[in-house]
């Protein structure tokens, strides 16, 4: 029997571990539309995937259902198509292509592709660490990442941060392999994945910049040029090129997505946001169990290994510095959007964890003790991740906000289509995000999603064929901000959930 187990490749056991884990932690979410935490942003990403089906898979002109954007172009677009500036939309393109091939546009397709990105990233980390440090260390590292609540929540979600980090994880793992088993091919492929991750989510360029800075520092100290620095520079050049193109796209068509820093306005505001980040991240990003074992691992690294001349530690140092600077520039976003932790602090955390695990002398500990420690951690971390998922997807939670908007427009889609012809110019006036209503009603429309007091009167002057409002929120969002609304429009019909209007002549 033991011989049979030895013949089975370790990848099989990892795959089994991965599948069993996700069957539990994602049981409540696998077939759900964008929902709960940051469903607004997740709806935008789902809409991008569907947009590629609608635009004939024009990769460099991604579009959503929203014909106008939160961040408008420099000049009004003559024929709006919903084109938006966005980071390199590889994930959305793959999802859209699979949906096109299968004819299935259900959300579980997107969630499955996101899980596959996660699987490949974690598999690389597991396999490379397994070759270098054995089963228990590799299992510990994978569980440390996989069962962090924030990573787990977005692991099968629609937001690109998780897929981009999983791509970055491949690059980091390959750098680890190169560091201990030098191979030019391994290095270049690692740089390729780090570059791809930063293209998919520009914030993740910090890791590649830190790697480049490490090479520059090594060149300054040794006066020896390393040709591999050129590969890193080319990766940064490619990212910079797409960044410039993305800004050009934003100037022409606008963007649904934030494309500029949002620092705190005052020092008091900054301190409040830092406190909020620390409070929220200790539960989702680095819960107490993870924090405790992370400290235990660091404490057990021998003092002589804390050598600042180590290339890996220099990479870590530059990563931490870059992440800190970004946190200052984007303090508001980090406090309001937990997925930014996947773009920023997760990479240096993993780089640090890998360094610590590689430098711990396991020979000083019994194998039974190590295996018991890892098993207890895996059980504890899995329990934390599972509890987090059950809490966030609890069916007893009242349906409201973005969830209610998606549900309302999905239930009303047939009614809306029976009255509003396909070629009509339609504006939907309701909050809950720019693409959320169209997750239920798959139609390109104009939107008023915020700044109601300012935008409603402006948009009513543009002569739309139909105006759609959500009954449950019309008083709070529309009438409260623009009391003259009823004097400007005439009711065509309502199904009790949404109302259809047109402007009075």
Automatic annotation (TrEMBL):
<keyword id="KW-0472">Membrane</keyword>
<feature type="transmembrane region" description="Helical">
    <location>
        <begin position="161"/>
        <end position="180"/>
    </location>
</feature>
<keyword id="KW-1133">Transmembrane helix</keyword>
<feature type="transmembrane region" description="Helical">
    <location>
        <begin position="311"/>
        <end position="333"/>
    </location>
</feature>
<feature type="transmembrane region" description="Helical">
    <location>
        <begin position="281"/>
        <end position="299"/>
    </location>
</feature>
<feature type="transmembrane region" description="Helical">
    <location>
        <begin position="229"/>
        <end position="245"/>
    </location>
</feature>
<protein>
    <submittedName>
        <fullName>Glycosyltransferase family 39 protein</fullName>
        <ecNumber>2.4.-.-</ecNumber>
    </submittedName>
</protein>
<feature type="transmembrane region" description="Helical">
    <location>
        <begin position="339"/>
        <end position="357"/>
    </location>
</feature>
<keyword id="KW-0808">Transferase</keyword>
<dbReference type="Pfam" id="PF13231">
    <property type="entry name" value="PMT_2"/>
</dbReference>
<keyword id="KW-0328">Glycosyltransferase</keyword>
<feature type="transmembrane region" description="Helical">
    <location>
        <begin position="82"/>
        <end position="101"/>
    </location>
</feature>
<feature type="transmembrane region" description="Helical">
    <location>
        <begin position="135"/>
        <end position="154"/>
    </location>
</feature>
<feature type="transmembrane region" description="Helical">
    <location>
        <begin position="108"/>
        <end position="129"/>
    </location>
</feature>
<feature type="transmembrane region" description="Helical">
    <location>
        <begin position="186"/>
        <end position="217"/>
    </location>
</feature>
<feature type="transmembrane region" description="Helical">
    <location>
        <begin position="369"/>
        <end position="386"/>
    </location>
</feature>
<feature type="domain" description="Glycosyltransferase RgtA/B/C/D-like">
    <location>
        <begin position="89"/>
        <end position="237"/>
    </location>
</feature>
<keyword id="KW-0812">Transmembrane</keyword>
<feature type="transmembrane region" description="Helical">
    <location>
        <begin position="12"/>
        <end position="30"/>
    </location>
</feature>
<dbReference type="GO" id="GO:0016757">
    <property type="term" value="F:glycosyltransferase activity"/>
</dbReference>
<dbReference type="InterPro" id="IPR038731">
    <property type="entry name" value="RgtA/B/C-like"/>
</dbReference>
């Amino acid at each position: 029997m033991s011989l049979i187990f030895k013949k089975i490749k370790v990848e099989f056991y990892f795959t089994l571990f991965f599948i069993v884990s996700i069957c539990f932690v994602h049981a409540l979410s696998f077939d759900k539309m964008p929902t709960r935490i940051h469903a607004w942003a997740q709806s935008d990403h789902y809409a991008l995937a569907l947009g590629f089906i609608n635009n004939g898979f024009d990769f460099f002109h991604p579009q959503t259902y929203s014909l106008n954007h939160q961040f408008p172009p420099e000049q009004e677009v003559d024929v709006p198509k919903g084109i938006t500036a966005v980071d390199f939309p590889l994930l959305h393109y793959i999802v859209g292509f699979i949906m096109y091939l299968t004819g299935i546009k259900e959300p579980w397709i997107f969630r499955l592709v996101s899980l596959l990105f996660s699987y490949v990233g974690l598999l690389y980390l597991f396999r490379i660490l397994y070759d270098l440090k054995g089963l228990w260390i590799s299992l510990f590292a994978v569980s440390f990442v996989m069962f962090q609540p924030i990573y787990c929540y977005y692991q099968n979600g629609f937001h690109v941060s998780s897929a981009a980090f999983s791509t970055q994880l491949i690059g980091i793992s390959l750098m680890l392999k190169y560091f201990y088993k030098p191979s030019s091919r391994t290095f270049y492929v690692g740089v390729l994945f780090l570059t791809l991750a930063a293209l998919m989510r520009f914030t993740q360029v910090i890791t590649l910049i830190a790697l480049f800075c490490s090479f520059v520092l090594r060149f300054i100290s040794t006066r020896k040029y390393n040709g591999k620095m050129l590969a890193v520079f080319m990766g940064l050049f490619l990212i910079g090129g797409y960044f410039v193109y993305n800004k050009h796209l934003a100037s022409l068509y606008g963007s649904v997505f934030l494309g500029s820093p949002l620092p705190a306005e005052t020092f008091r505001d900054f301190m409040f946001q830092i406190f909020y980040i620390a409070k929220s991240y200790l539960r989702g990003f680095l819960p107490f169990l993870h924090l405790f074992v992370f400290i235990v691992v660091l404490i057990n690294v021998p003092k002589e290994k804390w050598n600042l001349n180590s290339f890996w530690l220099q990479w870590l140092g530059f990563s931490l510095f870059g992440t800190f600077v970004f946190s200052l520039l984007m303090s508001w976003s980090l406090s309001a959007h937990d997925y930014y932790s996947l773009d920023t602090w997760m990479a240096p955390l993993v780089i640090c964890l890998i360094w610590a695990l590689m430098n711990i002398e396991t020979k000083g500990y019994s194998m039974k003790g190590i295996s018991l420690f890892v098993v207890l951690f895996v059980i504890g971390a899995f329990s934390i991740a599972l509890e987090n998922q059950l809490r966030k997807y609890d069916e007893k939670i009242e349906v409201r906000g973005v969830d209610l908007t998606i549900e309302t427009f999905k239930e009303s889609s047939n009614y809306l289509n029976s009255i509003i012809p396909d070629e009509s110019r339609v504006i939907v006036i309701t909050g809950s995000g720019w693409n959320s209503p169209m997750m239920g009603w798959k139609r390109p429309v104009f939107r008023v999603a915020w700044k109601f007091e300012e935008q409603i009167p402006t948009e009513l002057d543009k002569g739309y064929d139909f105006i759609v409002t959500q009954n449950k929120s019309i008083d709070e969002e529309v009438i409260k901000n623009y009391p003259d609304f009823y004097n400007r429009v005439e009711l065509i019909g309502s199904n009790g959930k949404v109302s259809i209007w047109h402007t009075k002549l």
